[in-house]
Write a structure and sequence with these properties.
Elements (H helix, E strand, L loop, with lengths): L1 H15 L1 H8 L6 H5 L4 E8 L2 E10 L2 E10 L2 E13 L4 E8 L2 E13 L2 E6 L11 E9 L2 E8 L2 E10 L5
Antiparallel strand pairs: 1-2, 1-10, 2-3, 3-4, 4-5, 5-6, 6-7, 7-8, 8-9, 9-10
Length: 169
């Protein structure tokens, strides 16, 4: 009789507290387009000895237009232009890039995992980003400070710090 009463009490408790239990596991959906606006503007960072990276992000209709270049000793050694926009089906942003050093274009997928962290992988790895060979993680430390990490096989190979270039906004 005591066992039946205990089971009834436990069942009643679970039924009455279902909303609380579910609320703890439900994650708030992030608005990727809104969060991408953190990239808007001009950014500069040191990428190594005598190398400066410049990232310029502008709004482009419902997406974003990125230009990235690396200058070494005043000479442009790398340039990339990308367009990105939101894909409702995957709930991710899709980015297409062209580069001066590669005759082919590339496709990337990116998304925010929190309000200040954005992850990016090759589009072919969108279904299983944990196993992506290459990954990039961008973290907004403040509105004017951005870190950019390159990962290969989930190991950080480079970390760069970019500061918003307020003179060129």
């Amino acid at each position: 009789m005591k066992a039946t009463r205990l089971i009834t009490i436990i069942a009643a408790f679970l039924l009455l507290n279902t909303d609380v239990l579910q609320a703890q596991t439900t994650q708030t959906k992030l608005n990727h387009l809104q969060l991408m606006k953190q990239f808007l503007g001009n950014w500069k960072g040191e990428l190594g000895r005598d190398s400066i990276g410049t990232l310029i992000c502008k709004s482009f209709y419902n997406g974003f237009d990125f230009y990235f270049k690396i200058e070494t000793k005043g000479k442009i050694v790398f340039e990339e232009k990308t367009l990105s926009g939101y894909d409702k089906k995957s709930d991710k942003l899709i980015k297409i890039w062209v580069q001066n050093i590669n005759p082919e274009f590339g496709i990337l997928a990116l998304w925010f995992t929190s309000a200040n962290i954005c992850e990016e992988v090759l589009f072919e790895d969108i279904s299983n980003p944990v196993k992506a060979k290459y990954k990039w993680i961008f973290e907004f430390k403040s509105p004017d400070l951005l870190t950019w990490k390159d990962l290969v096989d989930n190991k950080v190979t480079n970390t760069y710090t970019f500061h918003r270039d307020k003179l060129r906004q």
